[in-house]
Amino acid sequence: MRRFSAAVCALAFVWVLASADAATGRIIKVLPQRLDLQGRHALSPSLFERDAYQAVLQRNPRQCSGLRYAVQWKTKGAGGASLRLRAELLTSKTTQDEPLVIERAVQAKTGWSRWTSLPLDGDAFKQAGDVIAWRITLWDDATLLAEQKSFLW
């Protein structure tokens, strides 16, 4: 019995040491939001009003000046300077082999989640076409930490 418990403790210790160096990440929530001509996604801070205004903007595309993806994310053990969020958009004018890419460098705070917006506005929004599907990824250098994608991706 002592050998078994000593072996379990040793394995747990090795597992803790091995996982301490590995960076992990998570994308908690992605909110695609249309922006009106003044750059607003809502007229008031109410969630109900935000959803109602998003429905109005969806029905009236001439009132839209852009699109942004509000992404809530968090990391653990990742380097600060090499983190980046990437949005890949499959639109009516792109293919899945060559999606429209929006990328932003981000800084992590230990233990807390953060919100970062990935905007598509101006001429890029006008030329992009309708968004069909999206994929949001969190990268630490060349290592994929987290991913969240729309149903059609």
What can you see in these coordinates?
The chain has 153 residues and is of the alpha+beta class. It has a domain at 24-31 and 67-149: Immunoglobulin-like. It has three helices and seven strands, in the order H-E-H-E-E-E-E-H-E-E. The strands form two sheets. It has a four-stranded antiparallel beta sheet with strand order 4-3-6-7, with no helix packed on it. A three-stranded antiparallel beta sheet has the order 1-2-5. Strand 6 and strand 7 form a beta hairpin. The longest helix has 20 residues, at 2-21. It is elongated and about 70 Å long.
Q: Would you summarize the structure shown here?
A:
This protein has 153 residues and is of the alpha+beta class.
Query: In the CATH hierarchy, what is the superfamily of the domain at 24-31 and 67-149?
Result: Immunoglobulins
Ends distance: 51 Å
Q: Give me the CATH architecture of the domain at 24-31 and 67-149, please.
A: Sandwich
Structural class: alpha+beta
> How many β strands by DSSP?
7
| Principal-axis shape | elongated
What is the CATH C-level name of the domain at 24-31 and 67-149? Mainly Beta
Indicate the mean pLDDT.
Answer: 87
Number of helices: 3
Identify the quaternary structure here. Answer: single chain
H-E string: HEHEEEEHEE
